[in-house]
């Protein structure tokens, strides 16, 4: 599929291209709140995953890996390689980057990537590339890791002191 000079092939029906069949549907004006909504129909971006620090996130390929598939997971603007499954030679490699140490799991049946015990350093765009015998497919995930609410500096201090009421 080609739109605006960008070529992109979805991995599956669930995983549409970054921009697909965008149609202007009209404008809705809500007089009670003075808001104007421009309505569009279509897919506008990455699959979004929002999680808390300490949680895990699984980035699903939505495919069943074929024997000779090459599956590459990358992170960030520099496309740092996070994980690779090379079906042709039967190998799997996980990043040795310290931020991922003992945190990565790669499903050898689907190629899905799980990142455990997340920190805010894991926030960002993860890119998936699946190269099969006849096709190359892509998928992107925008992962946002929020700080845990329990990390407040004064969590054990009383809210009010006697005499200040």
From TrEMBL:
<dbReference type="Pfam" id="PF07686">
    <property type="entry name" value="V-set"/>
</dbReference>
<dbReference type="InterPro" id="IPR013106">
    <property type="entry name" value="Ig_V-set"/>
</dbReference>
<protein>
    <recommendedName>
        <fullName>Immunoglobulin domain-containing protein</fullName>
    </recommendedName>
</protein>
<dbReference type="InterPro" id="IPR036179">
    <property type="entry name" value="Ig-like_dom_sf"/>
</dbReference>
<feature type="domain" description="Immunoglobulin">
    <location>
        <begin position="46"/>
        <end position="146"/>
    </location>
</feature>
<dbReference type="InterPro" id="IPR013783">
    <property type="entry name" value="Ig-like_fold"/>
</dbReference>
<dbReference type="InterPro" id="IPR003599">
    <property type="entry name" value="Ig_sub"/>
</dbReference>
């Amino acid at each position: 599929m080609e739109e605006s000079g960008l070529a992109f092939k979805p991995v599956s029906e669930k995983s549409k291209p970054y921009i697909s069949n965008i149609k202007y549907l009209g404008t809705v004006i809500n007089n009670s709140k003075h808001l104007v909504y421009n309505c569009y129909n279509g897919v506008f971006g990455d699959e979004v995953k929002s999680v808390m620090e300490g949680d895990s996130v699984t980035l699903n390929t939505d495919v069943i890996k074929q024997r000779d598939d090459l599956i590459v997971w990358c992170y960030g603007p520099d496309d740092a390689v996070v994980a690779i499954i090379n079906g042709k030679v039967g190998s799997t490699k996980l990043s040795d980057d310290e931020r991922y140490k003992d945190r990565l799991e790669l499903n050898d049946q689907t190629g899905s990537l799980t990142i455990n015990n997340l920190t805010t350093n894991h926030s960002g765009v993860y890119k998936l590339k699946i190269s099969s015998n006849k096709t190359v497919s892509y998928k992107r995930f925008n992962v946002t890791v929020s700080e845990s609410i329990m990390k407040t500096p004064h969590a054990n201090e009383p809210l009010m002191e006697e005499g200040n009421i």
